[in-house]
Amino acid sequence: TALxxxxxxxxxxxxxxxxxxxxxxxxxxxxxxxxxxxxxxxxPSSQMTKRSSSSISMSYSVAVVGATGxxxxxxxxxxNKSSLDVSSLRIFxxxxxxxxxxxxxxxxxxxxxxxxxxxxxxxxxVFLAVSGSFSLEHAKALSEGDDGAIVIDxxxxxxxxxxxxxxxxxxxxxxxKGSKLIANPNCTTAIGLMALWPLHKLFKLKSVIMSTYQxxxxxxxxGMDELQEGTRAVLSxxxxxxxxxxFAHPLPFNVIPHIDKFQENGxxxxxxxxxxxxxxxxxxxDDFPVSCTAVRIPTYRAHSETIIxxxxxxxxxxxxxxxxxxxxxxxxxxxxSQEKYPMPLTATGQYDxxxxxxxxxLVFGDKGIEFFVVGDQLLRGAALNAVxxxxxxxxxxxxxxxxEA
Length: 405
What we know:
By secondary structure, the chain is of the alpha/beta class. The chain has helices spanning 29-37, 70-81, 117-120, 132-143, 169-172, 187-203, 220-235, 269-282, 317-326, 344-347, 379-395; strands spanning 2-7, 58-65, 85-93, 101-103, 109-114, 125-129, 149-153, 181-183, 205-214, 290-296, 303-311, 330-332, 353-361, 365-375, 403-404. Strands 1, 2, 3, 4, 5, 6, 7, 8 and 15 form a nine-stranded mixed β-sheet that branches. A six-stranded mixed β-sheet has the order 10-9-11-14-13-12.
């Protein structure tokens, strides 16, 4: 069996509110925690003591499609540090890039091959850093049949399909068992849920209010380029206000409360993604109250989130702090006496999500907690989460490698 991961920085190709009914792909914390703890994590992390040192014993042939994009580059970087044993690496691309070579770190220089479904199916693990429309066109063809690929899709093409798991490995990794097509969540959702899940296990969530401050790289390399060039043009005196093509308005020296298309209810598609995906991944009711306001800010990388939670049970801040200290994938940065708290400057390039500013809510009292979260959305929100899904699937036996290590 081959494994295919599709990764995309483009927005959703779905133009409707998804109905997620009776999905079996919901959080099962104890099993997922056990699977995560069995993985070998060679990723650099301040929280490595949380993870076991057991290994994945299979070797896989791996391919990446779209390795020149922002997410594709990070997939290659994650693979260089992953416990997934890669026996060979192939890179697929378009006619324009086919025949060129890419530096793949420890895998050496790899020549780009023209993408072909049959060739991609030859690999055990294939990562696609491509668009959602590409996923809709090719994902099921790649995954069909006993010899087809296991597809892990980072676009929004399949996230709201009740028959396809939507996965954050630390939360519901076990639901990958028996599935050939896996959806990777929206970057904002993945970052926020890393902090929300430990609290849900402790105090049971009743409602969630989130405000996000999202970096330019959420729009991919073109978004970062527009921010950089626009900032340069304004600072040099070349322009009073930067030009904008990628964003709805000029981003340098500005914030834009508009990410993705506006919906009939007044929320944007980006904001509704958080609502829909939180419900599905955590196994919450279809009407569970989650509200988000998403804002684009002029930083290169790492999304920030203010999260206000109403709980069913009384909140114990010390217990919450301990849970964050022990949870895989989280770094507690919460020492206001030393002015230490999560920031994009410190979270950029880090695999762990930073959590801090913990306090009881003045609105919800004993049944409420507020905090601040920052995570590198190209990693936890995309490439890292996809590679971790592959690790979980290797550990739980979902991937049948052609070659044993």
